[in-house]
């Protein structure tokens, strides 16, 4: 077998487009998913049992079924309910919902990691509930969940390749496309694999840098 | 009416009645020390005074305002009632200055920036820790952290301060510096209610001692008289056990 990467050069723009779409998909799912997660976590000890049940069901259903099926449901089944989303949008919605379910659990553990006494100290200083959340709970909680949250974001980036199955034009979709044109399967997937690797590695470096800037206070070790 | 008026307060946790009708009056400028065995309800009572705990019966008034009334603005009330905890409860992600100025700036008592830093400096000088203004809590000793917690309270300009076993979590050699700060406050006329196991401090600084036993005020009075002539065997036992 002889390797031939030269043919791939012509598809530079397709790869770039794929990378861009993969990153966009990841960004949308991360931001939307984290918002869902934060809201869900705040609601998960709501007074109303119905609200708690709703959050619990959401988390369990999403976490215990394949992401691919969730994408299929949104793309193929939702149209029967009158909502027809283009592939990319369908994938973005599905991945956001997926990220949301994991984020609920992550944020919930973050909120639970802040001792009750910290909240009381805030209350005793005359702060509102929101002020306590914003100034007393948020940053220390984020620091505690930072490793699991960032791993989850990376899993979303890698998992966004599933979107290719509904022909959303992200990086893995590009790979399939280029492969069908060139028949250089090994070369194509080796390149795409390397691109994913570099993207994730860069993301990890960014996360590590951000951690050092955002969480500067010393802790007991 | 007294400045702090605690009348017939009852409080249960699940099936256990922790406070069984407690009545205590505190006048402005008084230093009231609550002593008693653990489990006698001292800390619970303190937490009821600033509304951290609800009560089942009775009434607590601070400066005439009913603490557990739904119409009472607890937040505004708490700006006047500071509490210092056994475990300091400083915010670990903030410097000493930020810890102190967070509430005063959020509640709009002082402007951010220069004025806030000045306030931090001023209250820190009252606890002798000006030089630690930019440190993080984790970089301070227990005694220093507790003094910052007191300074954080002072920054709100409280009219009443509650101290919940503030020296119990400290190494013995650090207890003195915290007690000294509290003595200074007492001398400056601060109204204080404190739960403590420091009998010498109670004896020397308090204007009134309240001995709690089994959820009730068992005995109360001026420290000299109370320590010299305990009327009940429970207090006699308690005093002899603390020596």
From TrEMBL, chain A:
Domain of life from the UniProt record: Bacteria
Name recorded for this polypeptide: Amino acid ABC transporter membrane protein 1, PAAT family
GO biological process: amino acid transport
Gene3D superfamilies cross-referenced by the UniProt entry: MetI-like
Pfam families on file: BPD_transp_1
Subcellular location: Cell inner membrane; Cell membrane
Residue ranges occupied by any ABC transmembrane type-1 domain in the UniProt entry: 19-207
Organism of origin: Roseibium suaedae
Primary location class: membrane
Membrane topology: Multi-pass membrane protein
Alphabetized GO MF terms: transmembrane transporter activity
Entry-linked SUPFAM superfamilies: MetI-like
TrEMBL record, chain B:
GO cellular component terms, semicolon-separated: plasma membrane
Keyword Transferase: no
Location in the cell: Cell membrane
Listed InterPro entries: AAA+_ATPase, ABC_ATPase_HisP-typ, ABC_transporter-like_ATP-bd, ABC_transporter-like_CS, MetN_ABC_transporter-like, P-loop_NTPase
PROSITE patterns (alphabetical): ABC_TRANSPORTER_1 (PS00211), ABC_TRANSPORTER_2 (PS50893)
SMART domains in alphabetical order: AAA (SM00382)
The organism's place on the tree of life at top rank: Bacteria
SUPFAM superfamilies: P-loop containing nucleoside triphosphate hydrolases
A GO molecular function held by the record: ATP binding
Gene3D superfamilies: P-loop containing nucleotide triphosphate hydrolases
Membrane topology, record value: Peripheral membrane protein
Main subcellular location of this protein, as a coarse class: membrane
Keyword annotations of the record: Amino-acid transport, ATP-binding, Cell membrane, Membrane, Nucleotide-binding, Transport
Ranges where the ABC transporter domain occurs: 4-239
Family from the record: Belongs to the ABC transporter superfamily.
Protein's UniProt name: Amino acid ABC transporter ATP-binding protein, PAAT family
